[in-house]
Amino acid sequence: MIGGKSAEPAFLADTAEEELILSRPSLAEAEPEIYAEYIDDDTPLQSGGWIAPTLAIVLALGSVAGLGWLAWPSVQAGLTPVALVQLVAALCIPPLLIGLVYMLAMRTSRAEAQRFGASARTMRIEAANLERTVGALSRRIEENRTALAEQTDILIAMGERAAERVRGAAGMVGDNARDIDGSIRVFGEAMDQAEKRFEIILSTLPMAHDEMHGLAQRIDAAGLLASQRAASLDTQITALAQRGREADDIAGGAAQRLAAHIARMEATSETASARLEAVTGQMSDEVDNVLDRAANAVDEARKGIATQGEAILAMLEANQAALDRAGKDSTEALAERIATIEEAIARIGARLGEEQGRGDALFAGLSGGVDRLDRELQVLHAAGMDRT
Length: 388
Prior knowledge:
The protein is mainly α and 388 residues long. It has two domains: 25-164, no CATH class; 168-250 and 301-387. It contains six helices and no strands. It starts with 6 loop residues before the first helix and ends with a helix. The model is unreliable at 1-46 (pLDDT under 50).
């Protein structure tokens, strides 16, 4: 702002070759020599230099003791606070005066020259110490600069390796993401197929229901037909029984008429007994033939009824077997359909479990890789900080 040259380039020029490292230099080698030089240069005290301070101390103590001895009766008699303060001030004045006189006496040219020489020696010692310290600092700075350059190269190499690892991890993450995308797409296709199969199953359920309803209707129709045929058979059996009763009535009426006719013939003429016997034998034969024919007709009717009953029972058994087979076949087909659906659902669940396990393992691997990368970066950072 004042048009002068900035001090920053000069500072940078001074520190371009040497970088300042904030560390305490080791002065173990320089201090003994410095202290030895200081001890060698320091002149011993002159003989008798202790007399003046000792005399000043004795005089100060004697003045205090004398004033105290003189004031002791007054102290025993009792003093007011003001008098006590005055006594203390009086006791302090003689030592102060003695100290001032001693200091004025010690302020001589020779003492000043000695103090100046001691100060000069101290300054020379400090200058030498400073030079040694600066040399040690320069050597330490050079060593630290070399170590820092090595550490910088190492950190750059480690950073490049870490960047390569990060790029590799990013590529692996991308590949895993693509694998996950493909797995999700396959899973979606499997779900679409499963949904289509469920739709087919749901669409076939009404057909199966209609088939079962039709089968039930056919079973009802067969049962109704069987009941109708059983009713017609009952009607035929009733008609045959009625015909048997009519045949019995006819046979009974014929026998009664024959007996009346025989009675009339016996009453009419004994002469016609031979003829009557012949006629009676003929009539008996005819009656026997009629009875035989009626019995044969009844037997044939019974056989026909039994045959029709067996046929109806066989037809009922066949219908029942057909109904059982149809119900069993439809039940087995429905059970097979349900088993197929359950197997498809189980396969879908297993596939979902596998995809879930793969996804969990993938995410666990990604988390572990990121954690390892973070730990390695922290270790690198801590190592760099420790070395610098």
